[in-house]
Each structure stands twice: as structure tokens, then as C-alpha cells.
User: Which sequence fits this backbone?
């Protein structure tokens, strides 16, 4: 990937890895960590810190809290998604509610993206 790594965000990403939300921890420890592909947590890409990133699948996974429903954050998320898409990355967003109430469907969606022939 040719995006520039923003070293100013490295320290923040390290802190975020130590302070994952309950929903991020659930997705990480109960699913992503156990997959046979590598995911990075709180990965710096350009001027953004990505919740989860799989290099081999070029997949970005974002776990969104309720603050992402605020109009200014919807716009920021759209700009972020466009930037990442322009790098050839696929962005999948799941709300905290998705993680808490429909975890199996979230996992199946990610799994089917990674392994489309497994359907």
C-alpha cells in the first residue's frame, strides 16, 4: 500500500489497542483473532486509525458507536471511507448494536467476504 504512514498517530493507535471498546474486544477476541488470516488492530493508514485491518484481503472493519450517527460524524466517516476506497480497500462498518445483538451475522458477513467460496 502506498499511503503515507502518519507517525504522529502511532502513539494514539497504541493507546487505542490497550483501551478497545467492549464491542471491539468482543469482535477481536471472539472472532478475528482466531481466523487464519492476519488482522491488525488500530492500524494507521494515512491520517486515520482503522479499528481492524486485514492486508491480504484489503479489508477495513470499523466498529461504530452511537457518535457515528451524528451528522458531522456521518460526513467524516463518508470522507474516510472514500479515502480508503481510493486506496483499493473495502470498508465494512458495524454498529455496537450489531456486535451486541447480532454477533453471529457480523461474523458470517466478514467470513463470507474473506472466503466467498465457503457460502
Assistant:
Amino acid at each position: 500500500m502506498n499511503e503515507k504512514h502518519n507517525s504522529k498517530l502511532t502513539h494514539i493507535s497504541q493507546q487505542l489497542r490497550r483501551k478497545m471498546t467492549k464491542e471491539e474486544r468482543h469482535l477481536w477476541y471472539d472472532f478475528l483473532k482466531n481466523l487464519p488470516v492476519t488482522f491488525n488492530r488500530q492500524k494507521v493508514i494515512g491520517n486515520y486509525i482503522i479499528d481492524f485491518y486485514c492486508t491480504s484481503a484489503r479489508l477495513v472493519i470499523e466498529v461504530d458507536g452511537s457518535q457515528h450517527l451524528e451528522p458531522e460524524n456521518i460526513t467524516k466517516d463518508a470522507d474516510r471511507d472514500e479515502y480508503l476506497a481510493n486506496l483499493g480497500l473495502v470498508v465494512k462498518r458495524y454498529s455496537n448494536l450489531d456486535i451486541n445483538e447480532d454477533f453471529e451475522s457480523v461474523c458470517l458477513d466478514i467470513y463470507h467476504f474473506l472466503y466467498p467460496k465457503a457460502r
